[in-house]
Amino acid sequence: MGSTIRLTAADGHILSAWRTGPEDATKALVVVQEIFGVNDHIRTVADRFAAQGYLCIAPALFDRIRPGIELGYTPDDITEGRNLRPLVPDTAVMDDISAAAHALGDRKLGIVGYCWGGSIAWWGATRTDLFKAASGWYGGGIAATRAETPRCPVQLHFGDQDASIPDADIEAIRAAQPGIEINVYPGAGHGFGCDARGSFSPKDAALAQERTLAFFAKNLT
C-alpha cells in the first residue's frame, strides 16, 4: 500500500520513511515508531490509518545510528531496542519528526506514536507548532516532561498494568495536565496495541484506536 521514501532533516541528515495513504488526502499523520524501528508492525499501523483517509509518514528514527534497523519483539530485540534508543539525541529526533511533517505538505496534521513514539508524540505537541493534535500510546518519557506546555490538543493512552509506567506516573501527568484526555485501560500492559507482542490486548487496542480516530476526526478539521 505504501513505499519507502527519503527525507532530509534540517541538519542535513538523510533518513528513510514509510509513506502511505491517498495523495489527495486533506489530513495527514506522522506515525512514530517504538524502540524497534519502522518494522512491519509500524508500517501496518500507518497503513491502517491510511485506509481511513490519512496520508501518513513514519520516519525511521534509528537511521541516525545506521540505516535499516528493524527489530522484532523477542527479549533480545527488546534489549537491543533499549540500548539503541539513548543513542539518538532528542533534538535529532525532533529534527526528523519535523522533516516528516514538512514532507506531508499543507494538510491538517496530527502525530501519533507508540512506546518511545508515544513520548515523541507528546513532544510534538509541546516542542513544535507543527501539529493540530497529538495522540500518544504508552509513552514512558511523558511523566518526566509532564510540565511542558502542549500547543495543541493531546490524547494519551496507558495500560494500568504497564510495569514501565507506574500508576504514580499516570497520576502525575494527570495532575500536571488537567486539560488533556488521558485514557487508562484496566488490565492492559505495555505495548497492548501491538499484535506482535505477548502483551497485545485486542479489545483495548480496538478501543484505543477508536478513540484515536475520533480524536483526530474532531481536531483535524
Description:
With 221 residues, the chain is α/β, with parallel strands linked by helices. It has a single domain, classed as Rossmann fold. Strand 7, helix 5 (167-176) and strand 8 (181-185) form a beta-alpha-beta unit. The chain is 34% helix and 21% strand. The chain has helices spanning 40-51, 75-84, 90-103, 116-127, 167-176, 202-219, and strands spanning 3-8, 14-20, 27-32, 55-59, 108-114, 133-137, 154-159, 181-185.
What descriptors fit this protein?
single chain, 221 residues, alpha/beta, Rossmann fold, eight-stranded mixed beta sheet
Show the helix and strand layout.
Blueprint: E1 3-8, E2 14-20, E3 27-32, H1 40-51, E4 55-59, H2 75-84, H3 90-103, E5 108-114, H4 116-127, E6 133-137, E7 154-159, H5 167-176, E8 181-185, H6 202-219
Parallel strand pairs: 3-4, 3-5, 5-6, 6-7, 7-8
Antiparallel strand pairs: 1-2, 2-4
